[in-house]
Amino acid sequence: MLRLPTDHPRSNRAPLFKTIDRVGGRPLRAGEEDVRVLHEIAGRDEFAALVIRTDYGDSASWQALVRKLTQPWGERGQFHAQVHLIDDPVWAEATPDEVIAAVRRDESLSVVFMADRVTMQSSDRALLTCDVRAEDEDLDPMYYQELIDTRPPREFRSAPGAVHGVHANLSIANMDFEEFAEIASADPVGVLRPL
User: Fold this and answer.
1) What are the pLDDT digits (tens) for 33-67?
2) Which terminus of the chain, N or C, has less C-beta within 10 A?
3) Which residues neighbour 128 within 8 Å (Cβ) at sequence distance 6 or greater?
4) What's the predicted TM-score (pTM) here?
């Protein structure tokens, strides 16, 4: 559990994540790990792209990324950037699965962007773009082997300038996640650029 100094502004509030010591209603067995459960995000405007910082090794990289994300976007820069930034260390080192589980409660959200270690260390500042709606189903291989072998992509990398277009197009179902992933995979370094 994260412990905050008593003078920290969050010290008297409930933690943003909790560690559970039960799996499926039963106590943990020897060798099983605790599961970190992150709380849902409140106050996000449905038109704002959700960007969650999960790497805290370089503040200058984060500030550079924020500057890029808040620039006007569109062919001629005609659209105002709407972005909901989560910059809270409780999300540090959160995995894509943990983030998706936490944000999936927001029914109007179809995609989440993560500023992870790769984002912070790359010159492109390409964010990990995750499909919130993708479900990992346990399909019976006897009947669904073809579907198992061709599962759609769950994630790809997006340049900061592409974030708003991805969010907007997925929000109105103008394009689907697989289309964006395919475009990203055609890039020499696998990053979706502004369309």
Assistant:
1) 555 667 778 788 889 999 999 999 999 999 999 99
2) N
3) 96, 113, 114, 116, 118, 119, 155, 157
4) 0.75
Phi-psi region of 7 (alpha: psi -120 to 50; beta: other; left: phi over 0): alpha
Read off the pLDDT of residues 21-37 as tens digits, 9 standing for 90 and up: 333 334 445 555 555 66
C-alpha 73/C-alpha 67 separation (Å) is 12
Residue 94: other Cβ atoms inside 10 A: 22
Site of tokens 């759609």: 152
Q: How far apart are CA 57 and CA 140, in angstroms?
A: 42
